[in-house]
């Protein structure tokens, strides 16, 4: 009977130890799960706040653009009214023609003074070269001559 009592106490001790170990490892998981749940809630709250800020920003931007368009329309109407009241049609035509001529002269003077041409997306055809830049063998003869001179 004593051996049964010793076996029972040993089984109880082993069961308590195993129970305590399982509870401890499970408890750590629960703590980790609670921490992760709190972090997730914090991130969701921050994300919701960020979305609200973005929404507010774009709403304010849309309102500012609407006001800018209204101001532009008001300025345009003011200028149109002023032009119709203050200028005759002949005066307006003369001013436009004078401005066009001034721009044309300025452009011609700029070309004459600088002697600079706008950049091209191709090389002009040279009289010494039979093929233009877009030809498949453009520049190959020069490359072959250089290779012959260098001996490769």
Structural account:
The protein is mainly α. It has a domain of 41 residues. Helices cover 80% and strands 0% of the residues. It is built from 3 helices and no strands. The longest helix is centred in the N-terminal third of the chain and has 85 residues. The mean pLDDT is 79. Pfam families: ZapG-like. It is found in: Cell inner membrane. Belongs to the ZapG family.
Mind describing the biggest β-sheet? Answer: none
DSSP helical segment count:
3
Distance between the termini: 105 Å
Helix content: over 70%
Order of helices and strands, N to C?
HHH
The total strand number stands at: 0
- The chain-level structural class is mainly alpha
Taken as a percent bin, the fraction of beta residues is under 5%
Low-confidence parts? none
Determine Rg (CA atoms, Å). 44 Å
The overall pLDDT average reads 79
Overall geometry comes to elongated
Explain the layout of strands and helices.
Layout: H1 2-86, H2 89-114, H3 140-150
């Amino acid at each position: 009977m004593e051996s049964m009592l010793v076996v029972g106490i040993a089984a109880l001790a082993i069961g308590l130890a195993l129970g305590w170990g399982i509870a401890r490892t499970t408890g750590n998981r629960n703590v980790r799960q609670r921490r992760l749940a709190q972090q997730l809630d914090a991130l969701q709250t921050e994300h919701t706040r960020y979305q609200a800020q973005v929404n507010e920003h774009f709403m304010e931007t849309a309102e500012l653009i609407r006001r800018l368009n209204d101001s532009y329309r008001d300025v345009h109407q003011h200028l149109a009214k002023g032009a119709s009241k203050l200028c005759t049609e002949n005066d307006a035509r003369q001013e436009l023609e004078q401005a066009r001529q001034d721009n044309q002269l300025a452009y011609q003077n700029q070309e004459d003074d600088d002697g600079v041409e706008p950049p091209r997306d191709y090389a002009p055809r040279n009289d010494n070269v039979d093929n233009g830049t877009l030809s498949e063998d453009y520049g190959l003869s020069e490359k072959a001559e250089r290779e012959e001179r260098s001996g490769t």
